[in-house]
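Running this now, will post back.
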Amino acid sequence: MKITGVDIYNVQVHEMNLVIVRVHTDEGIDGVGEVALAYGVGAQAGLNMARELAERFLIGADPFRIEYLWDRMYRDTFWAQGGGPVVFGAMSAIEEALWDIKGKALGVPVYELLGGRCWDRLRLYANGWYRGCVRPEEYAEAALKVVVDGYTALKFDPFAIRPDGTWRYPRRALDREMADLAFARVQAVREAVGPEVDILIEVHGNLGTTSAIQMGRRFESLKPFFYEEPVDALNVEAMKKVADNVDIPIAAGERLYTRYGFRQYIEKQVLDILQPDLGLAGGIMETKKIAAHAETYNLHVQPHNCAGPVATAAAVQLDACITNFIIQEMFPYRPKEHYELVVQPLEYQAVDGYLEIPTAPGLGVELNEEVISRYPCVHIGEA
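Update: finished.
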């Protein structure tokens, strides 16, 4: 089997910019992956990086040689050794697509090629449910709707929405007004959902170390499931200082890449829960290596997932075959155009806050040809 062509779709869905890669072979089997730079700035750079990698390394290659191709992309690009989200996002999407091809060719889900299924179903937490909320009571009301939908865990950033309703990250040294408002929001959600529902606090790395510790100590009484990226993840020692001074499990990893980026966090046991994003950290196998390293320190893994339905499918394949999986992030409240990019999106298959392990070959999802054809596409190789 040889790779004959690559399609890279530029999908603008509301405020998201999804970049989906499809790899074609001479046996008529194709595979899909996703560059997880769907938010913030960088999606177009990821698209162009995927194009360059496809032109340089994929056309004519054997798609079954996944580790070999990953190593070539890592070392022969020069910049991947020490690279960031653009190069690793593109490499991740390509790697996911290669696993999708291999699974389809062999007639098995990807997790069967990586040790087999460890779980019958996966616990999920809902994110993206608090759009439009400002006042604490609005957060409480929205959280109750998530619980009615069957979720037993939900995540939100109580700092990002200003008192006037605009989304703007706080100052590193948190002012009293914003500190009190953030606490009131979390407190209102806890009081609304009760003690049996897990609340997960996200900070996006925006607090200074002092403010992160102060807020973490205030949040302790509300028993959060975790405290995510309280400080910038690039500063290992600052994260450790927070972890040493706050009695809440610390989570991070959305902006760490490959096993090399996670090494210090694992070996210094700074984090309780690692959150590699498969579409940025290097792909399925690279994230499994991260999980295996974390397992030697009794650390848990919760794959970060904030892109499209292809990214969700890839994350679920990994979740299924790692023993230190703890919970999976899910965005169930986006516009339907987001999910319609694939046939039978996994986001629609959640029941009571859990997802049954899929059994279809490869990643378990197929692009919706009618929908994906509406978006611009860069094609490399044979038509």
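DSSP finds twelve helices and 15 strands in the chain. More later if anyone needs it.
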